[in-house]
Amino acid sequence: MRIFYSIILFLFILTNCFAQLPIGRDTLTVIENGNTYSLAWAGGINSSNVSNIDLNFDGIKDVVVFDKGNQFGTGKFRCFIKTGNAGQATYSLNASLSNNFPTIKDWAILLDYNNDNKEDIFCSTSAGIMVYKNVSAANTLSFQLEKSLLYSNYNPGGVPQLSNLYASGIGVPAIADVDKDGDLDVLSFTSGGFELHYHKNMSKELFGSADSLSKFDMVDGCWGKMTENNCTVTFSQCALMKTFYAEPLTINKTNLHAGLCLTCIDLETDGDEDLIMGDISCSVMQLVKNTGTPTLAIITDSTKLFPSAAQQIKMNSFPCVYLADIDGDSKKDLLATPNAFGSENFNSVWYYKNISTTNTLSFNLIKKNQFQDEMIDVGQNSYPILFDYNADGKKDLLVGNFNYYNPTFNQSRLTLFQNVGTLAQPAFSLITRDYAALVSYSFNCVMPTAGDIDNDGDVDLIVGTSNGVIHWLKNTAGAGNVCNFSQVAVNAFSFTTLSAIASPNLFDVNNDGKLDIIIGTKNGRIAYYQNIGTPTSPSFTLVTNTFGNVNVQGAITEFGTDGFASPFIYKDGSVTKLLVGNVAGRVFEYLLPNSYTANATFTLINNNVNSIFEGGQSTLCYEDINNDNIRDLFVGNCSGGLAYYSSKAPNVSVKENSNLEKLDVNLFPNPVKNNFTIDVKNYGNVELKIIIHNALGEQISNEKIINGLTKISMANYQDGIYFVSIYFSDSKNNNLIGVKKVIKN
After folding, report:
1. Distance between CA 662 and CA 465 in Å, rounded?
2. CA atoms within 13 Å, Cβ hemisphere of 624
3. CA-wise closest residue to 622 among 572, 556, 661, 666
4. What span, in angstroms and rounded, lies between the C-alpha atoms of 396 and 427?
5. How far is CA 397 from CA 191, 253, 613, in A?
6. Is the backbone of residue 366 left (phi > 0), alpha (psi -120 to 50) or beta?
7. Of 154, 184, 252, 567, which has the most beta carbons under 10 Å away?
8. Distance from C-alpha of 292 to C-alpha of 22, rounded to nearest angstrom
């Protein structure tokens, strides 16, 4: 028995030795038209809710975007820290703070329900609303479940009828202090009809404070005396309905839809709440004006030309709006985003600045891609690969996608970023959003992989599409030349995968010197097509649709039979490994046998590598981009953005730090605002110096370390990434002993 447990312990230790990749969340410089992205690796934004919260405890409201990405699975919180002066809508990314938020689906908005100046999370749960309380302390962001489900009494004044406070997961309810008594109430459409329920929070009445969510009364079954159906508002409805506590309730039970998003707004600051409504079947928002009182709403006017005829909010489907201070001027601005898959995805965060100089509200459209214009965002889904397109010896970044939204035809494209940095310090600059002119082929989804499949010395591209077909972009440039993909062989190899959505990866599986194709498919499996052609004329035949018996299908209750496997196979020394992204956004790692056979089963090493979650439908590229002989990871997702995980991330112990650790060197703070300090202990009388480079490899500073505690000013440097190289120095030589990455923001 003791031997048995020893074996189990050994296997556990062995498994965990393989379980994590030597990488951490990091950043690289990305440039578009000469402008450096401030949020380059934020991960993209599609269908989102926008809220304010102080993330870093500096007394300034930051922004959290909850992006559900698409129709699959759990959403992702993206955390943006306010920078710059009041009146400037400038932000930096703090990716790690996303891990402090709970796992949530469908929708999430942040509001302070208990008046402690800390925003709490109201979010979707089955047919209702769940609440997480902000319990942050000691400058650590933290939330705990406060209410797993809000309940409301649907018969106040009579025999209590307690049930879940209904809120659809398709839409978003309005949560605001409707009656102006100091606690948060809820407006939500009925489950199958077109009336609006007003759920009054009874916290103030019962307890004298706003810090309870224990009792709501549905005091108005037809708030505003209006109905909404198919983008049309009808006034003076529900004449016999209860409007406040006492009157009889006679609700029309016609079953329509429940996909509406609601935002309360006191547009004229007259003390009662107006309402902005979005409908799943509509392309525009609708403003309805309240001419009643805070306790008895009467809607008598509506307009679809909101906020104005010239700047109307109009999206392909289901626009929603949120109020948040974006520029730090303490006035609520307006953000419009789609709440449905298949709507705007590249320009999907419309920022309207509140330009009013009085206590009223007036909105002016600033841009349609707030946050998105500062990050890599290729629309719906992202499929990254690295290859050297211009033969300069540096790997460039190519990103496929499902599509960029287009009002007439959604377009699947390849987006190319050239590596304009150095081998050790890469940086990317956008070249084109339609590389190889694939938009003209009308492919539905383009998922690339690169390799020299015809053995002519240059790199070809293989592209999979959503119908399970593979296309060959043949490089006719020849070795050492800029790639030329003017020849596109549609359905080049005359096969279609068993399960559609073909995510290909080129690799010599059987070690015969020819590149084979493994293809991740929609059912969570991987197909293996062996190259049976000649070295110069590839031809592929199906070996198996269940390569290694790999199955990354998501939970059936959440994803049905979908898996969306996205494979990346590679050599780790003499060992072959496989990384696979899936529909739930996780990363799986498998160990392959030394010699592959068709019936082999691969060993699952980890089903949640590095606890990576960047949004649903994760896609992977695991290659060395910074020339340190350790692989780095690019992760795509359903929102069209990318995350970058580096072997040189500040929280990863790698070779670059080993000599520094021997010298007991500390650099702080990092990130830095104005100055950082280098603290060097026990280095004796040896002279040290530092040289600072920017992200493009340009030297910008050369300074001596004059004592063990040296302060370095970065006040005059632009925000971005810098590399601090520390050297032993004598009269003849500079001997590099280590490099530290510093982020200035």
Report:
1. 51
2. 12
3. 572
4. 9
5. 47, 55, 21
6. alpha
7. 567
8. 62
Query: What residues are paired with 81 via a beta bridge?
Result: 92
- Exposure string over 623-638, b if 16+ CB within 10 A, otherwise e: eebbebebbbbbbbbb
Are 298 and 273 in contact by the 8 Å Cβ rule? The answer is no
If we measure between CA atoms, which residue out of 671, 610, 604 comes closest to residue 643? 610
Place of tokens 């009874």: 202
**pLDDT digits 0-9 by tens, 479-520:** 999 999 999 999 999 999 999 999 999 999 999 999 999 999
Identify residue 391 by its one-letter amino acid code.
A
Comparing C-alpha atoms, which of 711, 656, 699 is closest to residue 24?
Answer: 656
pLDDT single digits (tens) 40-88: 999 999 999 999 999 999 999 999 999 988 777 689 999 999 999 999 9
Residues 6+ apart with CB under 8 A from 106: 68, 75, 123, 124, 169, 170
Q: Which two tokens stand for residue 387?
A: 């290859």
Tokens of 500: 């559609």
R_g of the chain computed on alpha carbons: 28
- Within a 10 A sphere around the Cβ of 67, how many other Cβ atoms? 28
> What is the enclosing helix (H) or strand (E) of 4?
helix 2-19
CA angle 279, 280, 282 (to 5 degrees): 60
Sheet holding 734-744, edge to edge: 699-705, 688-694, 720-729, 734-744
β-pairing verdict for 675-680 and 688-694:
unpaired
The number of beta carbons lying within 10 Å of the beta carbon of residue 445 is 22
Q: Does a cis peptide bond (omega within 30 degrees of 0) precede residue 173?
A: no
Give the least confident one: 229-233, 287-291, 352-356, 472-476: 229-233
| Cα distance from N-terminal residue to C-terminal residue, the chain | 57
Taking the C-alpha atoms of residue 531 and residue 538, their distance in angstroms, rounded to an integer, is 6
Which long-range contacts (C-beta less than 8 Å, at least 24 apart) are formed by 664-672?
665/726, 665/738, 667/724, 667/740, 667/742, 670/740, 670/741, 670/742, 670/743, 671/92, 671/742, 671/743, 671/744, 671/745, 672/714, 672/742, 672/743, 672/744
